[in-house]
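TICKET: design request
STATUS: open
ATTACHED STRUCTURE:
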């Protein structure tokens, strides 16, 4: 039994020795071997860089062309809009010129008709006048309308003139017109109403003209007289001459001469302060006179001065 125990211990020890040899030996399983990264080819790297630069250059070129195209489109649009604006402006100017030509033609035609009627008016007889309304109410209402004739009220006033008998109120009617309360744009309408009055009453023109001359010759500021009223009075005098309500241009010529004298007037005061005040008044009168001359030249240049209107 002791021998078997000894053998058994030897086997155990041998087994242990064998196990140590196995564990102490080198391991044959070292795992997968690590691979080294491949070396980068310098030529490939340079080629990639060139390709990248080429693409970037192409992108920049495309962007440049896009910006140029957009700028060209904006410029073309701007030019087209400018051209359209010029065309619209030319068309508006042409339309305005046509309107002015039509208005001028209508005015010339109406002036010719009035001049023909006023040159030999067929005035009603006294018997015919007695058939018309001569009441104070009718004439008072008509005189109020005569103070402020407009293009819009012209037809109504003309109708009232045809229905009324103003034989006893001609002076009052002339004074109403002679207040010159109408506007510049209504001068032609006023002249037409005056022509109707002249065609009925031969004394109307002789009663009206002194009233207009008084306003045209008056001093601005006196009795509320304005430069606008002075200019409108002068223009109506010219218009009445053109349509034949009066045919003597002598008073108008003398009036224009007086206006020219106001333009050339100089101060005669001796003291400096008084001279300055007087000079200011003189300068103001000269400016007013120039405005009056401009009115005369504008509205009487062709019929009175014989100077054609500018094209």
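STATUS: resolved
RESOLUTION: sequence designed for all positions
ATTACHED SEQUENCE:
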């Amino acid at each position: 039994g002791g021998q078997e125990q000894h053998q058994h211990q030897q086997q155990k020890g041998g087994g242990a020795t064998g196990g140590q040899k196995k564990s102490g030996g080198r391991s044959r399983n070292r795992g997968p071997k690590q691979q080294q990264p491949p070396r980068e080819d310098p030529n490939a790297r340079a080629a990639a860089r060139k390709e990248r630069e080429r693409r970037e250059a192409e992108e920049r070129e495309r962007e440049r062309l896009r910006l140029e195209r957009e700028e060209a489109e904006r410029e073309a649009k701007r030019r087209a809009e400018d051209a359209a604006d010029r065309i619209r402006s030319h068309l508006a100017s042409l339309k305005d010129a046509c309107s002015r030509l039509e208005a001028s033609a209508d005015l010339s035609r109406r002036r010719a008709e009035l001049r023909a009627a006023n040159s030999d008016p067929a005035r009603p007889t006294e018997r015919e006048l007695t058939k018309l309304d001569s009441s104070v109410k009718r004439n008072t209402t008509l005189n109020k309308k005569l103070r402020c004739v407009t293009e819009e009220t012209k037809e109504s006033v003309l109708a009232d003139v045809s229905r009324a008998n103003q034989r006893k109120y001609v002076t009052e009617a002339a004074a109403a017109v002679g207040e010159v309360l109408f506007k510049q744009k209504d001068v032609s309408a006023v002249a037409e109403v005056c022509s109707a009055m002249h065609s009925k009453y031969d004394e109307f023109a002789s009663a009206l003209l002194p009233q207009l001359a008084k306003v045209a010759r008056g001093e601005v500021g006196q009795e509320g007289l304005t430069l606008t009223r002075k200019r409108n009075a002068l223009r109506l005098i010219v218009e009445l001459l053109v349509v034949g309500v009066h045919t003597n241009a002598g008073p108008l010529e003398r009036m224009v001469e007086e206006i020219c004298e106001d333009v050339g007037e100089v101060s005669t005061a001796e003291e400096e302060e008084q001279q300055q005040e007087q000079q200011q008044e003189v300068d103001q009168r000269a400016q007013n006179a120039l405005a009056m001359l401009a009115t005369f030249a504008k509205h009487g240049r062709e019929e009175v001065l014989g100077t054609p209107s500018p094209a």
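CLOSING REMARK: Residues 16-23 have pLDDT under 50 and may be disordered. The domain at 121-300 is CATH 1.25.40.180 (Serine Threonine Protein Phosphatase 5, Tetratricopeptide repeat).
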